[in-house]
């Protein structure tokens, strides 16, 4: 098993990233009025695959999408309190997104 941090900043962003050998486009956005970060995943051409995954701690964000075949897991964890949700200010600083491959 390998664990890699996906570098993020505390701002909305879209970037390409290889996940288990396939390149995807990830979009991370802060959403209001129910505040929180959400993740959208698209294929390399930008066609949406999964949208609106809340960046929550304590669970594999991709587990319910195993049928898509991402071949990896994504976890969110915050320094000093692994169960604390990422905030508008701390994403990428003390709150991290990790890619876990078998």
Explain this structure.
- The mean pLDDT is 95.
- The protein has a four-stranded antiparallel sheet, with no helix packed on it.
- 0% of the residues lie in helices and 49% in strands.
- By secondary structure, the chain is mainly β.
- Strand 3 and strand 4 form a beta hairpin.
Number of helices: 0
**Estimated helix fraction:** under 10%
Helix/strand order, N-terminal first: EEEEEEE
Strand order of the largest sheet: 2-3-4-5
Supply the helix-strand structural class. mainly beta
> Which term fits the overall shape?
globular
The major beta sheet can be summarized as:
4 strands, antiparallel
Descriptive key words:
102 residues, four-stranded antiparallel sheet, three-stranded antiparallel sheet
Short summary:
The protein is mostly beta strands.
Which helices and strands appear, and what pairs or packs with what?
Blueprint: E1 2-6, E2 13-19, E3 22-31, E4 36-43, E5 48-54, E6 73-78, E7 95-101
């Amino acid at each position: 098993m390998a664990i890699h941090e996906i570098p993020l900043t505390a701002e909305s962003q879209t970037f390409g990233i290889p996940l288990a050998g396939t390149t995807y486009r990830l979009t991370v956005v802060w959403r209001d009025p129910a505040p929180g970060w959400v993740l959208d995943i698209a294929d390399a051409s930008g066609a949406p695959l999964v949208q609106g995954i809340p960046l929550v701690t304590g669970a594999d964000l991709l587990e319910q999408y195993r049928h898509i075949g991402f071949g990896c897991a994504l976890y969110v964890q915050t320094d000093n309190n692994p169960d604390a949700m990422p905030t508008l200010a701390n994403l990428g600083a003390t709150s991290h997104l990790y890619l876990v491959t078998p």
